[in-house]
Amino acid sequence: MYQDNGKPTVLGDCILLVISIIINSLGNALTVSLNLGSALWTASAVNMSHLFRMNLGNILLLEGIAVILSNALLLRQFDWRRMLGNVLFMVPFSYLVSGIAQMLTVFHIQNLSLVPSVILDIVGVMMIGCGVSIYQRINLILHPNDDFMQILRFKYFRGNAVIASLVAFIVPITITAICFLLQRHLWAVNIGTVVALLFQGTFIALSDRYVFRKLKHQRL
């Protein structure tokens, strides 16, 4: 899976990318199903799906398109290859999260008692951080939300994942706050959201060090 110089082969890149998307999708779906707090971007999408009465997958897709345009503004150019990669990542990911979340409700995990639910929710947030770490290091194609964080991390904050995550979260927090003002109700915001806000950058940084340790940041 790796070349002699330590970089993944083309097949290795593809395998690691698929693994990272599955890990991230499952982590997001877990947090949505448990309703004990999702990662900030997912929480904002869940609240918009209730506000506009739209399928979560469709909202995730529309939110992603808006972020792609924001990324172009940050980079001060339209990098069409990068934008196409964002779309190629985002479409299957959006509907994977929505589909897996619906599937998990069949197992009634939303009816678990509080302690195992909180533990599973935090595990879901950790899985999101792990998935993000892997595909950000591959840097072949990225979800636009994570590309946003990656741009902030390496263009503005000298590679600091924690600071970049906190700054990137200002956008979904604002979206969620607006939804709350309009609906007077919050979905997917709970202890898991706080954990994501405070520690997702840390989970990403730890995964950079300990998950697929040979995999370094590429194509920066």
Question: What topology does this entry show?
Answer:
Elements: H1 10-34, H2 40-52, H3 56-75, H4 80-105, H5 114-138, H6 144-156, H7 161-168, H8 170-183, H9 191-210
Produce a short descriptive summary.
With 220 residues, the protein is an all-alpha fold. It is built from 9 helices and no strands.
β-strand percent reads under 5%
Q: For the record, give the distance between the C-alpha atoms at the N and C termini, rounded to a whole number.
A: 21 Å
Mean pLDDT: 91
Structural class: mainly alpha
Shape designation: globular
Question: What multimeric state do the chains show?
Answer: single chain
- The helix fraction, in percent, is over 70%
Unreliable stretches, pLDDT < 50, 5 or more residues? none
Radius of gyration over alpha carbons? 17 Å
Q: What string gives the helices and strands in order?
A: HHHHHHHHH
> Could you give the count of β-strands?
0
Number of helices: 9
Largest sheet: none
Kindly describe this structure.
The chain has 220 residues and is mainly alpha-helical. 75% of the residues lie in helices and 0% in strands. It is built from nine helices and no strands. α5 (114-138) crosses α9, α6 (144-156) crosses α7 (161-168) and α7 packs antiparallel against α9. The two termini are 21 Å apart.
Which keywords apply here?
about 220 residues; mainly alpha; globular
